[in-house]
Amino acid sequence: MKNEKMLLYKKIMVTVVSSGMLLWPNWGYALPQGGQVVGGSGSIGSPGGGAMEITGNGGNLAIDWDSFNIAQGETVNFKNMQAVLNYVTGSQRSEIFGKLNGSGAHVFLLNPNGILFGAAAEVNVGSLTASTRSLPEEVRKGFNGTLGNLDAEGIAKIQADIVNLGAIAADAINFEGNNISIIKADTLQIQGGDLSKVSLKAKDNINIGYEVTDKTTIDVGDGSGGHTVSDYSKGSGTKASSLGIVTAALDGNEKNITDCMLVHDVYELQAINNNYETEKNSANFDYRYVNGDYMLANEIDASVTSSWNSGQGFACLGALKQLPMGTPSGFQGGFTGSLDGMGYTISDLTIDRSGESYVGLFGCLTESARVTNLTLSGSISGQSSVGGIAGKNLGLIRNVANKAAVKGNSSVGGITSTNYGTVEFVSNSGSITATDGGSVGGIAGSNGDGNKTGIIKYAENTGAVTGWGNLGGIAGVNNSKGTIANAVNQGSVTSDADSSCFGGISGINKGTIKDVVNEGDVKIYKEGTMGGNSVGGISGNNIDKGTIENAVNKGAILGGVAVGGIVGENSGSIRNTENSGNIIGVISAAGGIVGRNANGKGSVIEAFNSGDVSGNGYIGGIVGNNKGGLIEAAANEGNISADQQLAGGIAGYNTNGGKIVNASNKGIITSGNSKGDSFVGGICGFNSGGSIANSYNTGDVTADGNYVGGVCGANANALVDGVYNTGAVEGADNVGGVAGYDGNDEELDYASIKNAYNTGSVSGNKNIGGILGLGEYGSVANVYNLGKVSGSADVDAIMGASDTEAVSAVRNAYFLTDSGYQKYGDGTVYATTAEFNQAFADGLGEEDKKVWQTDQKQTAPYLKPFLQEISGDVGRLEAAAGSDFKAALLAKLQELGINIDPDKILGLDGLAAGEYDLGELLYSTQDGYALQLTGTLVVKSGTQPEPKPEAPATDDKYTATLTSLQKKVVQAWEQSLVNDRDWHIEENRRIQLDNNSVKIEPVLFDEVNLQDEETPAE
């Protein structure tokens, strides 16, 4: 299970890392690595001295590379070929900083992750084609010197960009990518100067820089007077769009060049604000839109900005203007153009606008604005709505990295405070701090809202996020029209607040979160406080139709109430998630996946937890408190510990119609003593008005107090159907192999515990049973116990005790004795396993017969939901005595297309010479197969080893694993309707069973007072 689930983590990480982000450098570049000739014939040689030579046979050559990079001072030469296809199969973009030579050869460089020609790059070839398209293996092997046209599917796959800062000389140049950025047209040197032999095809934008010839001056408030800068308002100069370069969209439609004015220093960067248009709103108030398309010409040192404008530093580009009260909009204006950073950095920028809102390098990016290929470092602070790149974004931010520390009173984000546009291929490593509240995130403070769409994808945060408000490693709040996809957080999320919501990805999620990983610790706690409410590894609170799918948490999570490895508080849909971080809920409601499923709407489907979960009470391997929610296809392998009461391998408490289906626990479950009642179970601590079906426990269950069970500690007005336990169960009073207690308000005409068995040892003081400890109007049917049962009083192989007035009923129950399998109630003993199986089957109703496999002779009945059906005709197998019969069987099954786990096939050890019917001979473990095999095994005479004793049917050590939970499922799931929350929970009350009623009353626990949980701020 664990290894298979790790595939989800790896899949998400590979998707993010190989997403084509040009700002994540390939630090390991040297010469091309891992070259394999896949088409034509040729050789790859490295004569030394930082050189590589690829030699062909005069024709076409195709080479697959793990990576294709050339460092400055290195050279790659292509010789004796017409055309050569270099295709990168690895996950890193290509970075060319050295020389690439190929006289007369058409050199193709294809890398779906992106291509950068650095400023020191020198390319001298016959022709050059650089593309970020994907190319199937069969096409590469059949390379004929050309590339075919892209179809719609091929166009859709192109995500990565091409950036050229170097010098390229060739007879013809072809670029093909999502975006194409070229520092100047004169870097493309065509023989004879005919630029019509330059072909640029892009899905989105083609940016080419040019020098602005007109100059002006600018005063930045540094006491030095005017600084000479380009006059961007005039924009004069030779533009690439007038030079005859051929451009097109990838589908062949028209695509024009965006002529970008080059920016050389921080003064020219500030001068962008001078290129504006003034508009009036409906109330006749003026505001500005800053226009133009720009490109950084080189690295920008912005350290001088610390002394600008009386210490306020750089003035935000395209700042929003706050208009007087009563106007149609509080803030208007912004930046409407584009800035292509070309992979350069604006370093040590200072913006200190403590009295302003919407603060960042840009105040506001409008719907038409684009900021790409840029890294920013320095310090940025404001009052509210503060972002590293933009205070507010309605446009596109792509291939951007923020390293600046970003701070505000409220609503702060590493890239943008508020995102109503698209933020993709971005990273933040700067610290993010909010002192008063709002929405705070490593990438965005808030993403989308109820009316506007916000998209964050291919994003990474490594910066620490701290302060007050709704905090998230990626976004503080992901609203109903917000999407966060393919994102990774490695930064810590910390606060000493005791309200709001906190998550490794988002504090609150009302929209969609998918394909995400959190590796940062989320710790919301201060000594002497209750700790934070709604704390999760992915999201603190998943509400209002929020969906989370394909999510992994590896960070440690600490909070007060409603603390989960994936989500703290959930009334939405959670699917295909994994947690391996340790979870601590200081007050109550902690779960490996969800702290609390609230309001009868939360669902957790296909979940796996391997982290340890601990806290005061309501502790579960999957969900701490399942209040009417659904838990389906869930597995826990972490250890679960409650200081007080209510601990379960899947859920601490399952109530209000909550459902647990297809679940398994392997972790060790323990609990301290709370006024004598622990309520601890391998699957659920207390199943009150809920249901548990098709689930099993193999972990040991131990408690100091009462109500302890292999499946559930107590089952009150609830249903348990299709379960088994193999773990050792130990407690004080009311201890059972399946349930410590089964109670109902009245006598039932159906079974509240049915289709169950136990093979684990059961021990305690009083009311100790192999299936049930204490029954009050309990109803048990179709059960058997093979485990050892011990105690001081009222000890029985099936039910320890029944209330004398609320008499419990037991039907079709059996237990193991020295002489065979004895039927509970009438003393009939069945000496053989086959006889027991038949008797057990005879006592089943028609529907229950569908649940059990009772036709085997070697083992006690199995539950069918845990078996995979295998059928086929093996034919005749012959082998000498002492041979590996199992290997022969497996080989034959593989010929039939059937693959099985050999450890789950039994019956082939110690066979003497003779002929055996495989259908009669073979059997399986409970976690294995329902075998419907026909065929014959012929064992020939030979040296026979000593027979190996097979585990008897009474063996209490099963290693069952739910097959359906061992498969990693990555798919789109339907979202569940969610709304409303009930924050006054039962965690803060002690549960007592008195006669035939369930009482829930306030109580002070031994060490910690479980106080009423507070409603998190939204």
Describe the secondary-structure layout.
Layout: H1 2-17, E1 36-39, E2 42-45, E3 51-56, E4 60-65, E5 75-79, E6 83-88, E7 94-96, E8 99-110, E9 115-117, E10 122-131, H2 137-141, H3 152-157, E11 162-164, E12 167-170, E13 172-177, E14 180-182, E15 188-190, E16 198-202, E17 206-210, E18 215-219, E19 226-230, E20 246-249, E21 257-263, H4 266-271, E22 276-280, E23 286-290, E24 293-296, E25 300-301, E26 320-322, E27 331-335, E28 338-359, E29 362-365, E30 370-387, E31 390-393, E32 396-402, E33 405-413, E34 416-419, E35 422-428, E36 432-441, E37 444-447, E38 454-461, E39 465-467, E40 470-472, E41 475-478, E42 482-489, E43 493-495, E44 502-503, E45 506-509, E46 512-518, E47 522-524, E48 533-536, E49 539-542, E50 547-553, E51 557-564, E52 567-570, E53 573-579, E54 583-591, E55 594-597, E56 603-609, E57 613-620, E58 623-627, E59 630-636, E60 640-648, E61 651-655, E62 659-665, E63 669-671, E64 677-681, E65 684-688, E66 691-697, E67 701-703, E68 706-709, E69 712-716, E70 719-725, E71 729-730, E72 733-736, E73 739-743, E74 753-758, E75 762-763, E76 766-769, ...
Parallel strand pairs: 3-5, 4-6, 5-8, 6-8, 7-9, 8-10, 9-11, 10-12, 10-13, 11-14, 12-15, 13-16, 14-17, 16-20, 17-21, 21-24, 23-27, 24-28, 25-28, 28-30, 29-31, 30-32, 30-33, 31-34, 32-35, 33-36, 34-37, 35-38, 36-39, 36-40, 37-41, 38-42, 39-43, 40-44, 41-45, 42-46, 43-47, 44-48, 45-49, 46-50, ...
Antiparallel strand pairs: 1-4, 2-3, 18-19, 22-23, 26-27, 82-83, 83-84, 85-86, 88-90, 89-91, 92-93
GO cellular component, one term: extracellular region
Main location: secreted
Subcellular location: Secreted
